[in-house]
Write a structure and sequence with these properties.
- There is one protein chain.
- This protein is α/β, with parallel strands linked by helices and 321 residues long.
- The protein has one domain: Rossmann fold (3-Layer(aba) Sandwich), CATH 3.40.50.
- 38% of the residues lie in helices and 21% in strands.
- The protein is built from 10 helices and 9 strands.
- It has a 9-stranded mixed beta sheet with strand order 3-2-1-5-4-6-7-8-9, sandwiched between helices.
- Helix 3 packs across helix 4 and helix 4 packs across helix 5.
- The longest helix is centred in the middle third of the chain and has 35 residues.
- The protein is globular and about 45 Å long.
- The protein starts with a strand and ends with a helix.
Length: 321
């Protein structure tokens, strides 16, 4: 099975992926040097889709509902801002190593890398880049939606043709802003379906989005939060008040709300029933530095993400059982 998968709308310049928006391209690799573009093989969109379907088709068939937590995943990872392509590839590789490879691997993970400038001073330009990249991610989500609906029909007619993979998505930092806009586009394109799960588990890690995004609750109002809640079976926001990067983000947007990844949900009593949060502050070491990115390095938060993706009930996760 192919080890690494990548979809990108970054341009190619000087033998690397750059910081400008371009047409989407698709890549696969079995190398361990995935921060070097010459270690990737560029393939067509149709070839990428075919290979991905074939890989997911090799997952174990677990027809017993009691085994659903062991079902393997096709997971999409969307990185955050201030990340050049090499850093995005390195973080993606680390995530694959911790969660998706080896005997306890959870399936496979696909990197969606958008043209973040990779500069601390470019927060606002990166935010514009995130909005510009959203339609491309929406195209990926829309294609996935169509495939899942087809597999539901196939599975109803013949259980042996049912999909063997759960679909999940991990978005970090401003990658959640890309996702927010992409989900709205995908939901609108599909005529705003209700209770049709595109994503089984969405993990919003240190999300750089307004913390009132889900305040519409169970009301269908067409908002971005409404789109996300309706396209996902469960949404989990991981946050920490110890995250200084999101403190800077809030300060740069004087007009905005607090950041979801720093302050948590604006009012948890208003949110849809399938949206919840975990304060990760106590999972980090007292002297932990770089908390904004440490979610992917601290064993306790990595294990938390594994349990969330598996579909462990939130009451069990909170109890630490």
């Amino acid at each position: 099975m192919t080890r690494y998968w990548m979809i990108t709308d970054r341009n190619i310049r000087d033998g690397r992926l750059g910081a400008d928006l371009a047409a989407m391209t698709y890549w696969v690799s079995d190398s361990e040097q995935i921060d070097k573009l010459d270690q990737w093989k560029k393939v067509s969109a149709s070839a990428f889709r075919t290979q991905l379907i074939e890989a997911a088709g090799q997952f174990p068939d677990l027809p017993d509902p009691a085994d659903h937590e062991d079902q393997q995943h096709v997971t999409l990872f969307v990185h955050g801002y201030n990340v050049n392509w090499e850093d995005a590839a390195t973080r993606y590789q680390s995530l694959c190593s911790y969660m998706f490879q080896g005997k306890d691997g959870m399936g496979l993970c696909v990197l969606f890398t958008w043209p973040s400038d990779g500069m601390v001073t470019n927060y606002l330009p990166d935010r514009a880049d995130a909005r510009a990249a959203a339609p491309d991610l929406a195209n990926v989500l829309s294609a996935l939606f169509d495939w899942l609906v087809k597999k539901q029909v196939d599975g109803a007619e013949d259980p042996t043709k049912a999909c063997r993979a759960k679909t999940s998505l991990i978005a970090h930092s401003m990658g959640n802003y890309v996702l927010q806009n992409a989900m709205q586009l995908a939901w609108t394109r599909k005529n705003q379906p209700l209770l049709v799960s595109l994503i089984n588990q969405l993990v919003m890690v240190a999300a750089d989005v307004d913390n009132d995004i889900f305040d519409s609750g169970e009301t269908v109002d067409g908002s971005d939060g409404d789109a996300i809640a309706n396209l996902c079976y469960r949404v989990t926001a991981l946050y920490s008040g110890r995250d200084p990067v999101l403190g800077l983000s809030a300060g740069l947007k004087h007009f905005g709300k607090r950041r979801l990844g720093r302050s948590g949900l604006d009012d948890p009593t208003k949110t849809p029933d399938n949206v919840w949060q975990v304060d990760c502050s106590q999972l980090f070491k007292p002297n932990q530095s770089g908390i904004h990115s440490a979610y992917f390095e601290e064993p306790k938060t990595v294990d938390l993400m594994r349990r969330i993706l598996r579909g462990v009930d939130r009451t069990v996760i909170v109890a630490g059982d």
